[in-house]
Amino acid sequence: MNQDILEEKKDVVKEIVSKAKTNKTVIIAEYRGLTVAQMQEIRRALRKENASLAIYKNSLVSRAFDELGYTDKSMLTGPNSFIFSEDEFAGMKIISKYARRYNAVLHIKGAIIEGQLCDEATVKELSKLDSKDSLVSMLLSCLEAPIRSFACAVKAVGEKAN
User: Fold this and answer.
1) Rounded distance, CA 86 to CA 132, Å?
2) Average pLDDT over residues 24-46
3) Is 57 helix (H, G, I), strand (E, B) or coil?
């Protein structure tokens, strides 16, 4: 094999490893049958949410998986697209929306979410959740309610005593 080609492949593997380490979510989706226009539409939607879609050879992704320590490579068959997302949920929500719209030609196979391999069902369930910030705010409001009620009760007792 030509040395230049070998170096290019090593660079691509390094790029995949780097993207997988710097992004919180990597979604693997089969895109067999998507048109160029549909692919551009998905890419535009992902770009708005600081996510990106890339196409790599499965053999190079397999080598990147080896470097990252993942042994399950069952998702790496067929024509795959790889969605890299800085946010845990943004990329999942967008690709799930398009997977429903183009269900005959776009299939989510799985994901790497914060270092954990997940299957298709997990990705679909997580895509239904609100964003991490809104989930945290809901939790905080639930924690705040009893404290607020207690403070109101103490205040009422104090006012009644005076």
Assistant:
1) 12
2) 91
3) coil
